[in-house]
Design goal:
With 137 residues, this protein is of the alpha+beta class. The chain has one domain. The chain is 19% helix and 23% strand. A hairpin with a 5-residue loop joins strand 3 and strand 4. Helix 1 crosses helix 2. The radius of gyration is 15 Å and the shape is globular.
């Protein structure tokens, strides 16, 4: 039986806050928009989108974890909050792989070492999801 080797920043129990821009950057989307982007991302990656954290309380945020420093290469639209090296004092909650981690959970399982969401693919999906509707006038 083999088990995944999780990065050292994934706690073994509960959850822990991590400063963004060090181990990962994160892109945060609210509610159904985050779920819609995740659904499209999972479809395009054959069910393996990379590490995505879901917050089940409050605004029901979805955090897409991308490689550290990679958020700087993109202009994220309004509605997508970038937690990266250019941001100051932005923390992201990271749940353990198993057990009671409420209100946080991994949407597609905890990541393996060096596993991240593809920043370019995510950016394209976020732009498509958050693009203003075209006027029919």
């Amino acid at each position: 039986m083999t088990s995944k080797k999780h990065p050292e920043w994934v706690p073994t129990a509960g959850h822990r806050l991590h400063l963004s821009g060090i181990h990962f950057d994160a892109i945060r989307l609210r509610g159904v928009r985050g779920e819609a982007v995740l659904q499209h991302l999972a479809t395009l990656t054959e069910g393996e989108p990379g590490p995505v954290v879901r917050e089940m309380a409050g605004a029901r945020w979805t955090y897409f974890l991308i490689p550290p420093g990679s958020s700087d290469g993109y202009d994220w639209p309004p509605g997508a909050t970038c937690f990266g090296p250019a941001a100051r004092d932005q923390w992201v909650g990271i749940p353990a792989p198993d057990g009671n981690t409420y209100p946080l959970s991994w949407r597609c399982g905890a990541p393996e070492e060096d596993e991240f969401v593809d920043a370019e693919l995510l950016h394209g999906l976020v732009l498509a999801q958050l693009a203003p509707a075209a006027d029919d006038a």
